[in-house]
Amino acid sequence: MKFQSTRGLERDVKSAEGIIRGIAKDGGLFVPDSFPNLYEILKKNKGLSYEELAFKIIKEFFTDIDENELREAIDEAYNNRFKPELNKNYLELYHGPTCAFKDAALLFLPQIMKRAKKSLGVNEEIVILTATSGDTGKAALEGFSSVDGFKVVVYYPKNGVSAIQERQMATQEGENVKVFGINGNFDNAQTGVKKIFGDEKLKEELKKNGYILSSANSINIGRLVPQIVYYFYGYFKLIEQGKIKEDEEINVVVPTGNFGNILASYYGKQMGLPINKFICASNENKVLTDFFQTGIYDKRRELILTQSPSMDILVSSNLERLLYEGSGRDGEEIKALMDGLMANGVYEVSSKVREFLKEFYGNFATEEEVHKTIKNVYEKENYLMDTHTAVGKTVWEKYKNETGDDREALIASTASPYKFPVSICNALGIDISNVDDFGVLKELNKATNVDIPRNLKGLDKKEILHNEVWDKDEMLDALLSFLK
Ligand SMILES: *Cc1c(COP(=O)(O)O)cnc(C)c1O
């Protein structure tokens, strides 16, 4: 399998190269040349372990990586560290070291990058730069910590992540990791990282010093591909639990930020998975809702800080990959759209693309609706969900009300409720006025009896190792201070 850029200027790129470089030379994102129809084969052996399933899917894309090496990478990434669980309609993707779904991809990425490096004979140290709205950062730190031949630098908006998320990052151990708070929001952080990546002179300079920059954000094809796996896994679990019959179409509901997770489900459909609608759920930063309703992508608005901070995003980078498919893989058209976004903050897609987008449904949930959903579902279904998942559930209900389409759905449950415990306590009316951020975990546990994930217990007693804050215009200086 070879990869091509969404902006048309690169073709026939090996997966190892796409994984190492992260982004194409023309600024586009790498996409596979085709999508093998695996569903027909996989449905004949549904009982596979998560690792086996992952191997069968991922090996179709990363064909230039030795199969034994790939197996090893998958085992090192997932064995006893990550597995999804299907609970009612909720595909819980947060049973990993950082308690959010990004573990699925970010445990795997370092392992595949290591092998990609080897297959290309790259000797330089790879510096992973990541802007995070909370979850990516910690997951990247966990994944890359102490992996030979890599450094990780994480930028997060100083006031844009939860106390728990901040503490998770601040306490990260490992000689090769660094965390910077940024005075600015997530978009500022992401723009800053993109700017560093766009600086060819800087890259040359770094290369002379033995460093190559790369990304762990969800635009990396090494992160996107492993995410396809859990939609297959979830679909087969629905069959196993008797909720659907083989080949029955389902809907997929995804609380969406950078559009990586929902895109992975779309790729799943291209591989044969029977999916009817992709329900794209946003919080009050509803750029995508407006986009699916009007065909106009307009980021010219204030970013709102919500209680689902991992979705507080105005530019959903992976949408570019969907538009590429929608345009009939017309790189020039995509380049024009993305140039428009860069220059004016807005673009409008063609009527052909709009037609294509009908497979998607976009809507959003207000903060008040999120609270109500958490409370209702807890009281009626005895199921405790986090704020991001509640955005998904709220939008699913809206979709069903609007369309009457109530077929089975997989709702991506993207974080443990314990990652956003203040919001959950407020939603449930649990009194937390007399406890600190970490006491809140215990209060939530007392009130609900739902176990605190092992990886969040004792976080308050861990030593703070990272506390630097830099201005949003100083992100490069911060990086260079670490690489010195
Ligand atoms: C990252 C994240 C999302 C959004 O996923 P995308 O792939 O960026 O759309 C949703 N929920 C949680 C908890 C996340 O960490």
Descriptive labels:
single chain, 484 residues, alpha/beta, Rossmann fold, 3 domains, six-stranded mixed sheet, five-stranded parallel sheet, 21 helices, binds pyridoxal-5'-phosphate
Task: Indicate the CATH class of the largest domain.
Answer: Alpha Beta
Low-confidence sequence ranges: none
**Oligomeric status:** single chain
Return the domain count: 3
Strand portion: 15-25%
CATH hierarchy: architecture of the largest domain: 3-Layer(aba) Sandwich
Mean pLDDT: 95
Percentage of residues in helical conformation: 40-55%
Counting H and I runs of at least 4 residues, what is the number of helices? 21
Number of strands: 16
GO molecular function: threonine synthase activity
Keywords: Pyridoxal phosphate
InterPro entries: Thr_synth_N, Thr_synth_N_sf, Thr_synthase-like, TrpB-like_PALP, TrpB-like_PALP_sf
EC number: 4.2.3.1
Record the SSE blueprint:
Elements lengths: L1 E4 L7 E2 H7 L8 E3 L6 H4 L7 H9 L8 H12 L6 E3 L2 E3 L9 H5 L1 H13 L4 E7 L3 H10 L5 E8 L5 H8 L6 E7 L2 H13 L1 H9 L2 E5 L5 H20 L9 E6 L4 H11 L4 E8 L4 H8 L1 E3 L20 H8 L4 H14 L1 E3 L2 H6 L3 E5 L2 H15 L5 H17 L5 E5 L7 H8 L10 H10 L19 E4 L3 H9 L1
Parallel strand pairs: 5-15, 6-7, 6-9, 7-8, 8-16, 10-11, 10-15, 11-14
Antiparallel strand pairs: 1-2, 1-3, 4-5, 12-13
Helix pairs in contact: 1-6, 3-4, 3-11, 4-6, 11-12, 17-18, 17-19, 19-20
Pyridoxal-5'-phosphate binds next to helix 12.
